[in-house]
Amino acid sequence: MERTNQFVGQSLAFLDAVERASRAAPLNRPVLVIGERGTGKELIAERLHHLSGRWAGPLVTMNCAALPENLIEAELFGHEAGSFTGAAKTRHGRFEEADGGTLFLDELATLSSPAQDRLLRAVEYGEITRIGASRPIEVDVRIVAATNEHLPGLVDQGRFRADLLDRLSFEVITLPPMRARKGDIALLVEHFGRRMGVELEWTNWPGFSPQALAELERYSWPGNVRELRNVVERAVYRHENPERPIQALQFDPFASPWVLNHDSAGAVEVAARTGEVPSPTVEPALPFPLVATTDLRGAVADYEKALLENALARHRFNQRSTAIALGLTYDQLRHAMKRHQLAVTAPT
């Protein structure tokens, strides 16, 4: 309960990824961790470090997407005093900070081309050169890098160096998304829910109702474990009676009758001046007036198609959420979309 982030799961896809990380950990080789957002890439990096011979050394993390392009090289490799405007004193980079340990480079695909060039030399020769310096510095660093991009595809596009990819891909661990981790959702729901109950000082854990668990199992989880944790913890903290099972869920925290749209600014301004509360956003009416028809089947089919289009748009073209809202199974929705020749992806 004390550990904020930890591995929880029992599905074969999940256990296989963890096992591969455990086997690669003792080797002094670079590892690439690939996965969608929220799948636990940083946890794998921690495991690779703590199960290696470098466990007593530093684990230094750098998010390559969090810095402007002109500062990434200085952050990675350090700089000498006066090497550029604002460099008042010498500064060690992340490579020097990680000497004797592990450097975790998150969002690797966002590295600029010059930074990729310098990173390649660091990986190949075990030395770096601070910006503004003339002599290289030897460093003993293991690289673990993560991304949610398809790096071979970026190589084909000329956006990532092929030789750098070759150097970093001794082992590639691809983490399964939540939708592929069969059997893990109920386990994670229980784990996150109980932990939130402890935080709220509940003396009793009521669990989730069968209906709520079924909804959680059906959802597609585009944000993976991180999104599941948010949904579960939000449901627990909003639940008012710890003696009864938790039923209410909110998958989209932005869902509200007061969602701003392109013409809502005027309504907000009027409300501020008059003290009146603006009316909730009204759903667009379906374009079918009740008129006489000589083709009942055609009219019903057109109406059904319009209902599908309207529901898909309201649920941002998430087919699993749309199916739940319409009381259909996922396969029934897909069949209906195919019957009405509706695109299976959101329009661009």
What distinguishing features does this structure have?
14 helices, two-stranded antiparallel ribbon, 348 residues, 5-stranded parallel beta sheet, alpha/beta, 43% helix, single chain
Q: What does this protein look like?
A:
The protein starts with 11 loop residues before the first helix and ends in a 9-residue tail after the last helix. Helix 5 packs across helix 7 and helix 12 packs across helix 13. Strand 4 and strand 5 form a beta hairpin. The protein is built from 14 helices and seven strands. It is 43% helix and 8% strand. The protein is globular, with a radius of gyration of 26 Å. 24% of the residues are buried. By secondary structure, it is α/β, with parallel strands linked by helices.
Q: Tell me the quaternary state.
A: single chain
Shape: globular
Secondary-structure-derived class: alpha/beta
User: What is the number of helices?
Assistant: 14
Strand and helix order: HEHEHHEHEEEHHEHHHHHHH
Share of helical residues: 40-55%
**Tally of extended strands?**
7
Kindly provide the radius of gyration, computed on alpha-carbon positions and rounded to a whole number of angstroms. Answer: 26 Å
The major sheet is characterized as: 5 strands, parallel
